[in-house]
Structure of GntR family transcriptional regulator:
Amino acid sequence: MSAIAPLWNSLMLDRQASTSLQDQIVAYFRDAALSGRLPAGTRLPSSRELARDQGLARITVVQAYDRLVAEGYVLGRVGAGMYVAEGVATTAPRAVPGAPVSANPTALTAPPMPLAVGIPALDQFPWADWAKAGMAAQRGRPAHLLAYGDPCGTVELRAAIADYVAVARGIACTPGQVIIVSGAQQGIDLVARTLLSPGDAVWFEEPGYVAGRCALAAAGLEIVPVPVDGDGMDVAAGLAARPGARLALVAPTHQYPLGATLSLGRRLALLDWAEVADAWVLEDDYDGEYRYGGRPLTPLHTLDGGRRVLYLGTFSKVLAPGLRLGYLIVPPALADRFANAKWMQDRGAPGLTQQTLARFITQGRLAAHVRRMRPLYRARRQALMAALAEHAADVLDADGNPEAGLHLVARLRVPGDDAAIAEAVLARGVKAAALSSYYLGSAPAGGFVLGFAGTAEAAMAPAARILSAAIRQG
């Protein structure tokens, strides 16, 4: 049963109207029940509460409630109050375009399901080190961190990130080029609205990062799907489709979701196109810290010298998505432009969280955490591969995935609707993202994008069994 708030601010009684106050109360609750704004089981305020809040005689509310009961919209329960009856709503609440998968707060805050993508090992979050960094950040009671700060981020965090990427990714930049954002999606949105105009074309990996595509579409941009193969984005296909595009959004280190690494030849071709077309490249390096074999290629930002490439990084995968912290590295000539755009977009991320992360990085705790996680993620990846080989080898092909990142792709060996299968396993507590959902056009074959980083090794086999059973059931 859902309780209601004691004040019904949306109930506006008109004492000058020809309609009686009792009729207005009945109409309000009747319409709310019919429209679904008050779901079945919602408890109404007591007659005494509503009369007090609205400045009415209690008898007016009692008589209105009696009419609602008589008409079947409300049920009275002795000693428990009044509740909206079952089966009353005739119209479901309208869905908001682009809304989350579920608008139910409980669903969005529930613990991650096995095989969910984009979730690091939250059970291994370095709480003790984070607490120490937080205590250091709060020492001296820095009141300025509680006020409005620089929308681009604190000086300390921007400097810490500049030092970190220099060592970890070989990127040379100054703190003034670093813009703190609330995760990768805000970074994509900021680039789209700062550098492009509605109607401009953007090369987008096909298949690709769905939330990124939504951010570009929300900015009014034309999405040009560019196919991805074993060498990453097919630059020649992009040139054939739309040579005059203004931006390319690409994940060259570990393409999402297929995992390909953009080859050196295509990296150079992409940079040549950007130079000739006076276009921009947004390099999304969402999980570049995690490779389990071989050496990563040089980032596009380094190859380009930071002239046409903007680099996007996030702490959602390396630490936790709930921190809502990421960063953009922009060319020096664009720093002021992005600073102004960021100021208009929001007033910046929370200062205390930024300062804690800055201390966490400068004290070497982030690098230490990444070193601890690499063998753990390698083991979890191997556990998932073994579980799929044992329980789903006849229906899923997980071979050929690169030894990198926090997820892998398993393609269907048998005919099947991956979206329908994904819904079926979701009902059984497993999150297997349908590969087809990452395509703007039609997918060449069905499959699943499976996260392993946030799933314990012991949970891999049960999840694989549930997935394989759903595939066989069709």
About this structure: Residues 1-7, 92-103 have pLDDT under 50 and may be disordered. The CA atoms of residues 223 and 397 lie 30 Å apart.
